[in-house]
Amino acid sequence: MKWILPLLLTGALILSLAACGSETGESGQSSSAAPSSSSPQAETETDSAAVAPSIDTEETVSQISDSDILIAYFTMPEDVDTEGVDAISGASIVVNGGEVMGNVEYMASVIQETVGGDLFQIETVEQYPLDHDPLVDQAAEEQDADARPELATHIDNLEQYDTIFLGYPNWWGDMPQALYTFLEEYDFSGKTIIPFCPHGGSGFSRTESTIADLQPEATVSEDGLTISRNDVADSHDQVAQWAAGLGL
Length: 248
Hints:
Layout: H1 4-31, H2 40-47, E1 59-61, E2 69-73, H3 85-89, E3 93-96, E4 99-102, H4 103-115, E5 118-121, H5 132-144, E6 153-155, E7 163-167, H6 177-185, E8 192-199, H7 207-214, E9 219-220, E10 225-228, H8 236-244
Helix pairs in contact: 4-8
Keywords: Signal
InterPro entries: Flavodoxin/NO_synth, Flavoprotein-like_sf
Protein name: Flavodoxin
C-alpha cells in the first residue's frame, strides 16, 4: 500500500499543472480578442478599398476645418497594372509619390494644396466595377435609366461653405449619375460652384449647364477647368495656376 501515496501526489501535481495551463490559455485568448477601432489593424480593415460600403456603413462628413471652401469630387480609378507605364497613360489613374489616385482625386488634391479647403469624396453605396469595359457599360446603363445611385457619404455642415469645387469624370458626354444624386440632395443657394473635370475628348459636354439647372439659386462659375485624362498626370502646375488664379 506504500505505493498509493506517491501515486496520489503525482496525480495531484498533474491536475495542478493542467489548471495553470488552462488559465494561461484563457488569458491569452482574451488578450487577442477583436481589436478596438483605434488599433492599426482595425483601421486597416475599415479603410480597405476592398470593403464595399453599405447602408449600415454610411458616413456623414462633419466639419473638418473652419474653411469656407469645399472640394467635393467623384473619382473612379480603374484597376490597372501600375507597373506598366503605357497602361497607366490611358487609364483614369495617376501614380503620385507611389500612391495610386483617381484622375479627379489627383486634381482635387492639387486644388486643396493650392487654395486650402476640405476634401469630400462622393461615394455610392453600390460599388462600381474597376475594370474599364464593365465600368463604362454600367455608366451607360445608369444614364439610360436616369438612375440616382444611393450615396454612402454625406455632408451635415454645408452652411459652412461658400465655395464648392465640384469634380467628376465625363462619362458618355455627361456627369456620372451619382452627381445627379449629390446635386439633388443639397441646396447650394447663394454658393459658388466651380466645376473641374478630366475628359476623354469632350471637355465639359455642357455639364456646367446641367449643374446650373439642378442648382438654379447657385452661381456656377464659367471659369471651371477641364483637362484631357491623358494629361492629368502632368497637370500639377496647370491645376495649381488655375486654382490660384480664381482669387479665393
